[in-house]
Structures are given as structure tokens and as C-alpha cells.
Amino acid sequence: MKKGKYTKTQDPTGWGDSTKLIRGGLTRSEFGETAEALYLTSGYVYDDPESAERRFSGEEEGYVYGRYGNPTVTMLEERFRMLEGAEAAYAVASGMAACWGSLACQLKSGDHIVASKSLFGSNYQILTVILPRFGITATLVDGNDLSAWKAAIRPETKILFFETPSNPLLEVLDIEAISDIAHKAGAQVVIDNVFATPLLQKPMELGADIVFYSNTKHTDGQGRVFGGMILSTAKFKEELLKPFLRHTGPTLSPFNAWVLLKGLETMKLRVNASSHSAEYLANSLDGMPSIERVYYPHHDTHPQVRLAKKQMKLGGTMVSFDVKGGKEGAFNLLRRLRIIDISNNLGDSKSLITHPATTTHKNIGPEARALMGISDGCLRLSVGLEDASDLLADLKQAMAVNS
To answer: What is the DSSP string of 76-131?
Structure first.
């Protein structure tokens, strides 16, 4: 078959999020394929040795090795970069690879981090167990106490780190205020924005320096592949992030990148639909006899509801709640569910429910869970795309055992 030639330029100026999610970063080969091409290759060839030399010296643009870059991965990075509104993006193998890369690439022995105490279990482990092995310390503070952030900063503080909304209690932190504190101290702000997604909250517009995601969650949204993404300035990527990640190797598979590209096409539809259902469930669960407390950023009972509505377009796809009866009450509810699946994953088209104290936050221990406010009766619900009325009915019949 004779090769054709495909040429079409893109001008993304003024594009909305939906257009960016479908066409951002799109590069077609000479065949003019409709779907993004999947380039399954570990290496590349050169026309001559001089070309190879120029590629490795940076004098000539082009790919040199799968660990350094791939055309399918590049499309994913560019699409996400446009969605976030960042200067640069770097795709990696998982969300935790994104967390580790964001932090480790800019730290050395003797450096210090200030972080919110409300953290995902693996984020907590990195800050309190893994980084201290390399002489890097962390101070955990009440994320909503701005004076605590200021008081914890030292001359060696390099990063202020937090999640908002946090996992699993959906604590909402003031990105703009904390960023201002950090920058006055000469520190960088690193944010885990997984729960909000870049569709509902754009931390860089509020002052954050580095934002990372687990694309395993809402980007794929259908429980298929792993992936992570780091958004930053071009300078940070080129001088710190790229050298660190290229030589430590948390490489994203081109196949996973291709799946994530296809997931991005429907991400806005899924996130918006799930967020509306989540708000409906939060309002419906509040005040039920078996429920002690409901956590949802846009719910009137949330302590940071005004801030959440200022920072987030919608309240997000996650709802957490405390069940009466502690662990026994929570487990009784979980056993009775007929539609909602028990899983530690989230951001899926299927609704998934988690008992953090025995799964995602088990290894941090009871004392740390108590400091975060995670009770044995806490359940975290990732709301999917089922009919919201069916999900509510499932929760009601499951709670009957506790009544």
C-alpha cells in the first residue's frame, strides 16, 4: 500500500475543556488515522551515526529510547498539559510514581517538607517513612490552620505538600493562601489533585507550582490501566524532573497511554455526571438514622463549603460518611450491598466503596488515623455512572441491618 500524506494544523486558542480532551495534542501519521496511533516500540533507529549523536546531544529533535519518550505518550502529555493550563507535563507509570517524582527530583538530604496531616496512606508513607531514610524530614500540620503552616516552615523547608480534597475525609484546603505562604518562604507547592481532577479544580491558577495525578482514576475511569501525570513549569521539567525520571525509569507504557487518551475523550461527561450523583447521595444520606456524619465538599455541613465552592466547579465524585457502630456497623453495611462494589480503587464508571481503616489507611496505624479523623466506621464511596436513585436504594437496604 502506498503511503499517504496527512497534514492538518491545530490552533487550540480559546478551546474549551471538552475540545481539549478530544483533540488536544493530536498527532496523526502520514496515514491520517482517526484514532490516536499506538506506537509499541522500545527504541528508535537513525539515518546515520551523526543523527544519533545530534539526538543525544539535544541538537536534533526526535525520540531516542522508550524510557525517554514515545509519540503516544507525548500526545497524552500534551493533551493533559492543555487541560491543566500548565507549561509542561510528564507522564509516568502510576499516581504514586507521580507523587514520588514530584518530590524526590527536587530534594536532597537535610531538606524539609511541611504537609497537611490529612493524606492518602501511600503519600503518608513516602513523607514519614521513605524520605526520612534519605535524610529528608517532614512536619505534618492541620491543613486549615494557616498559622500552623507558617510556624512549621524552617530555613531548610523546600516544599509545602497537600491534597485537596483529601483522602478520605474530603478536607478542602485554601490553595491560594497556602501557596502565598510557601512562596514568601521560597518553597514550592506540590498538590495531589486526584479527587478534584483538572476539570473541577485548577491549582496552578491559584498559585500551585507542581500538580500531580493518578490517571488510573478518573482519566481511565474504567478500571483498566495504571498511569500518572506531573504538571509543572517548563524549567522545572527540563532541569529537575526529566533528568530524575529518565534515569530512574518509572516509564508509562505506550499502551496505557493510548487507553488513557481514549479515556480522556469521555472524562468530562463522566466526572460531571458522577459529581451530580455524588451530591444527590450526600444530601440524601445526611440525617439518616445509621449515618453519624456525611463528608462532601459542596454539602452545607462541610466546614470548608464556602472555600470548596470557590475553588471547585462541582463537589466531586467522592462521598465519605461515618456509619454508627464503628467497624462492625460499616462491615454490616458493606456485606449487604447489591450494586456498589467493595474496592480500594476510585474514579471508576462503577460505584466503589472502601473501608479506609482496614485498607488504604491501614498501614499508617491507629494513632495516625485518629489524628486524621478517620474512624473505624468511616466509608469512602466513589460514585460511578449508575442511576443515582439505584445507588441510594442500595445504600438504604444495606443500612437496614444497622437500624
So the answer is: HHHHHHHHHT-SEEEEESSHHHHHHHHHHTT--TT-EEEEES---HHHHHIIIIIG
